[in-house]
Specification:
The chain is an all-alpha fold. The protein has six helices and no strands.
Length: 141
């Protein structure tokens, strides 16, 4: 099981998971939230029993986009899971369910002037950078 994709998936959910802000997040995130709750529920006690792992989780919760914080958490989770084969297997099964459901994170980056990034697809219209685009008109108007 690769740890970094798991960390990337959990990162945006860690702050509400730590704060217990479940209802609002659940409404916004849908099925992804459900998988995050199951994964975190399996990890939480073990993470809290390891100060370095807990600090790494708190760092990611405070700065979910930080590559350094995510790397530190990935390292802590790798150590934790290497020390507990049963937990690793359970987490791997939960992660497989999340990936099968298609709720895992897709990182998309737009770089450069007037760049556009799309995470999945675009439909129902045009995509504009704002330079010379005009609204698309229905030919029947």
């Amino acid at each position: 099981m690769e740890i970094r994709p798991l960390v990337d998936f959990l990162a945006p959910f860690l702050a509400p998971l730590l704060e217990g802000a479940g209802r609002a997040t659940a409404a916004a995130a849908g099925e992804a939230w459900d998988h995050a709750v199951r994964l975190w529920g399996r990890l939480a006690d073990r993470v809290r029993s390891r100060p370095a792992a807990l600090e790494a989780v708190q760092d990611v919760a405070e700065a979910p986009d930080s590559t350094g914080a995510r790397d530190a958490l990935a390292w802590q989770l790798e150590k934790l899971l290497n020390a507990d084969a049963e937990l690793r297997e359970e987490l791997s099964a939960l992660w497989s369910q999340a990936t099968a459901a298609g709720v895992t994170v897709t990182n998309v980056t737009a770089s450069g002037t007037r760049s556009i990034a799309v995470g999945r697809d675009v439909s129902g219209g045009s995509v504009s950078t704002g330079d010379t685009a005009s609204p698309r008109r229905d030919p029947d108007e």
